[in-house]
Design a protein that fits this description.
It contains three helices and two strands; from the N terminus they run H-H-E-E-H. With 105 residues, it is α+β, with helices and mostly antiparallel strands.
């Protein structure tokens, strides 16, 4: 099966952004395997790392397997301490994490 590496990413990727990025690839690999076809889907290793630097400030660092920055929000500078990065991690992502644990996301 092509998706072994991507399947392992589900175990090691602790952040929901990485899971949401790898899941379509895993599904494509499973469906292709069930149909005895080859899958063309490739996971680039995307993950995000919200790094809390102090109360009210964080850095939202998103990167791929090659360590290349791949920001998904054009208004957030990944290597700069910003309140909006802290807000995303502190307020927005926690609800998503809880929904994922309950199987709703």
């Amino acid at each position: 099966m092509n998706g072994r590496r991507e399947g392992m990413e589900l175990i090691y990727n602790a952040h929901n952004n990485g899971v949401f990025s790898v899941m379509p690839v895993v599904v494509d690999h499973v469906l292709a395997e069930m149909a005895n076809k080859a899958s063309e889907a490739v996971y680039n290793g995307y993950t995000s790392c919200p790094l809390i630097t102090r109360y009210g400030k964080a850095m939202l660092i998103e990167f791929d397997y090659d360590g290349k920055l791949v920001p998904s929000f054009p208004f957030i500078e990944p290597l700069e301490e910003l309140w909006v990065s802290w807000l995303i991690d502190e307020k927005l992502l926690h609800g998503t994490y809880r929904a994922m644990l309950r199987g709703h996301a």
